[in-house]
Design a protein that fits this description.
Blueprint lengths: L3 E7 L10 H13 L1 E10 L10 E6 L2 E8 L1 H20 L10 H18 L8 E5 L6 H7 L5 E5 L7 H4 L5 H6 L6 E4 L2 H14 L3 E4 L2 E4 L2 E7 L6 H9 L1 H13 L4 E8 L6 H14 L7 E8 L6 H21 L7 E4 L8 H7 L2 E4 L8 H9 L7 E5 L12 E3 L4 H12 L3 H17 L2 H13 L24
Parallel strand pairs: 1-2, 1-5, 2-4, 5-6, 6-7, 7-10, 11-12, 11-14, 12-13, 14-15, 15-16
Antiparallel strand pairs: 3-4, 8-9, 9-10
Helix pairs in contact: 2-3, 3-4, 9-12, 10-11, 10-14, 12-13
The chain binds the ligand O=P(O)(O)OC[C@H]1O[C@H](O[C@H]2O[C@H](CO)[C@@H](O)[C@H](O)[C@H]2O)[C@H](O)[C@@H](O)[C@@H]1O and uridine-5'-diphosphate.
EC number: 2.4.1.15
Organism: Melaminivora alkalimesophila
Enzyme class: transferase
């Protein structure tokens, strides 16, 4: 039987809860199959030179964790730089926030090459390799250049923007060509697949072989939508445990006279947090009956603090929250509770269950697991309502949520008002329909459907030669 090798920038001990959707999801997926999980340890090692690292391995149940620290220069250029100041904003449609700095790309290539060199000696012939996310797009190219012939799949957790936005990326042809070193490319939604295909056909002159297969650069790859899910049973179990129950009861007691609304996000400009606060302000203005009765709890957990756009966002948000509390708050009621800390995962289900309205309103999001967690946390007899941005990947699946446009402040205020006053029967019906989708397309379905597709042989006529060791991609011109 083949062994599963997962590679991602962020990883966590799969037996322990972690914040951040990717680490949570991969931990849960690997818990089931066992295997090897390779990635960054999360540590920046002052002693280390750029492009160098020492491999550390340890066992976590059935999963072997193999990690490397990053040198400070690599952390700055690869993680904070190319990954989070170039690829993250561009793939979230925010060209205005991208910082196209030449040294970032050098660091990105250097770390991908180092990952490949450290991973290769750990691989066995029968392994199947599954690489995750935008930090590691060129990893398969680097592995193939070192002689790796195993099947390699790639899953992108963030959205794919339309071709003309991608084409604004100075090295877009170099980056997008790297996808062809994979046997399968998984994306979160059909919209992402459509953008990816259009880019490859129009900008890379790829040939469409049908059935999701594309040919270019003398190779073939397959692309498909594999929307990521959550581990429903595990999350329900977490919801029944003491921490979650206590969290829920404490909140209900403290706010017994209020209707609660909740947002839980990393403090990221893609999550539409200021737009949400403005919509809540509009709700209080347009529907004054909610004053003294509605309270919005906003968890905005720290994320990527050293990237400038994130620091700017924090300042903007704190101004907005202070403004709304100053203008509308009273001695016995504050409209908004803003918390800039990570909430322990074991408390998330209790928090979600205590509130009447879950606000998941990103401007763009690959999927958004909080949307699914909110639904699963609800009491089916008296469920809360999910207000969901149509621009989250999750919206393609969760059509029974109240879908909103986060740029439309008044429209969002109206939807929140509808959610706050939705009759029980409608809440129950929507919750039932959402649960069905979430349970059918859970984390295990996601893992299995991706890996089944990766294992499926290419049709005979189109079968590509086993990946020969090849030269790595030409180094792109510095910008
Ligand atoms: O690792 P960080 O820089 O701390 O960021 C946390 C993760 O954020 C992103 O998550 C994405 O993956 C989720 C699961 O598929 C998805 O629901 C969400 O929409 C995405 O934003 C990022 O893509 C991960 O690599 C990060 O680890
Ligand atoms: O303070 C927090 C904030 C988030 N999360 C978890 O982190 C994940 C966030 O994943 P999502 O896909 O919503 O967004 P991402 O942060 O990965 O972009 C979810 O499982 C949340 O429950 C958490 O445990 N504590």
């Amino acid at each position: 039987m083949s062994r599963l090798v997962v590679v991602s920038n962020r990883l966590a001990d799969p037996r322990r809860p972690a914040a951040g959707g990717l680490a949570v999801a991969l931990g849960e997926a690997l818990n089931r199959t066992g295997g090897l999980w390779f990635g960054w340890s999360g540590n920046v090692n002052e002693e280390q030179q750029p492009g160098e690292a020492h491999l550390q391995t340890r066992q976590a149940g059935r999963v072997t964790l193999a990690t490397v620290d990053l040198a400070p220069e690599d952390h700055a250029a690869y993680y904070q730089g190319y990954a989070n100041s170039v690829l993250w904003p561009v793939f979230h449609y925010r060209l205005d926030l991208a910082d196209f700095h030449g040294a970032y790309l050098d660091g990105y290539r250097r770390v991908n090459r180092m990952f490949a060199a450290k991973l290769l000696p750990l691989l066995r012939d029968e392994d199947v390799i599954w690489v995750h996310d935008y930090h590691l797009i060129p990893l398969a190219t680097e592995l193939r250049a070192l002689g790796c012939r195993q099947r390699i799949g790639f899953f992108l957790h963030i959205p794919v923007p339309p071709p003309l936005i991608l084409a604004a990326l100075p090295q877009h042809d170099w980056l997008m060509r790297a996808f062809f070193a994979y046997d399968l490319v998984g994306l979160q939604s059909e919209a992402d697949v459509a953008h990816f295909r259009r880019y490859m056909l129009n900008e890379a002159q790829a040939e469409d072989l049908g059935d999701g297969r594309l040919a270019a650069f003398s190779r073939e790859t397959r692309v498909g939508a594999f929307p990521i899910g959550i581990d429903v049973q595990e999350f329900e179990r977490l919801g029944r445990a003491a921490d979650a129950v206590q969290t829920c009861e404490a909140l209900r007691q403290e706010y017994s006279r209020r209707k609660l609304l909740l947002g839980i996000d990393r403090l990221d400009y893609s999550k539409g947090i200021p737009q949400r606060v403005r919509a809540f302000r509009e709700l209080l203005e347009k529907y004054p009956e909610n004053r003294h009765s509605a309270t919005l709890i906003m968890i905005a957990s720290p994320s990527r603090d050293d990237v400038l756009a994130y620091a700017d966002l924090r300042q903007e948000l704190e101004g907005l929250c202070g403004g709304i509390n100053g203008d509308y708050g009273d001695l016995d009621w504050m409209p908004l509770r803003y918390i800039h800390r990570i909430v322990a995962r074991r408390r998330v289900p209790g928090l979600c269950r205590a509130v009447r309205v879950g606000l998941v309103t990103p401007l763009r999001d690959g999927m958004n697991l909080v949307a699914k967690e909110y639904v699963v946390s609800q009491d089916p007899q008296d469920p809360g309502v999910l207000v969901l941005s149509r621009f989250a990947g999750a919206a393609e699946q969760l059509k029974d949520a109240l879908l909103v446009n986060p740029y439309d402040t008044e429209g969002m205020a109206d939807a929140i008002q509808t959610a706050l006053h939705m009759p029980l029967e409608e809440r129950q019906a929507r919750h039932r329909a959402l649960m069905e989708t979430i349970c059918t397309h859970d984390i295990h379905w996601w893992r299995k459907s991706f890996l089944d597709a990766l294992h499926a042989p290419a049709p005979e006529a189109q079968a590509q030669p086993p990946a020969e060791p090849r030269a790595a991609l030409p180094t792109p011109e510095p910008v």
